[in-house]
C-alpha cells in the first residue's frame, strides 16, 4: 500500500519526497472512497468495487514502474 501511494504520488524508483507521499496518500484515499460507488454504478454490485480498486491500484503501480524504467533508459542512453 505504501509503495502504491509513493508511486501514485509521482515518486521514482530512486527518489521520493514527502510531497510524493502526501499526493499519493490523497489519491489512494480518494480511490478507496470512490471504488464502492464505481462498483455499484459499473457492475451493479458494491462488492466488485473492491476488485475494481485492487485492479486500478496494481495498474497504477505497473504504469509508474514502466514509466520510470523508460525514463531511466532514456537518461542512460542520452549520457552515453
TrEMBL record:
TM ranges: 21-43, 55-71
Keywords, alphabetical: Membrane, Transmembrane, Transmembrane helix
Protein name, entry field: Uncharacterized protein
Amino acid at each position: 500500500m505504501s509503495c502504491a501511494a509513493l508511486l501514485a504520488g509521482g515518486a521514482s524508483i530512486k527518489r521520493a519526497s514527502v510531497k510524493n507521499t502526501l499526493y499519493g496518500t490523497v489519491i489512494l484515499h480518494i480511490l478507496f472512497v470512490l471504488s464502492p460507488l464505481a462498483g455499484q454504478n459499473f457492475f451493479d454490485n458494491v462488492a466488485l468495487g473492491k476488485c475494481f480498486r485492487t485492479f486500478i491500484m496494481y495498474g497504477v503501480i505497473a504504469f509508474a514502474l514502466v514509466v520510470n524504467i523508460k525514463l531511466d533508459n532514456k537518461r542512460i542512453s542520452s549520457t552515453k
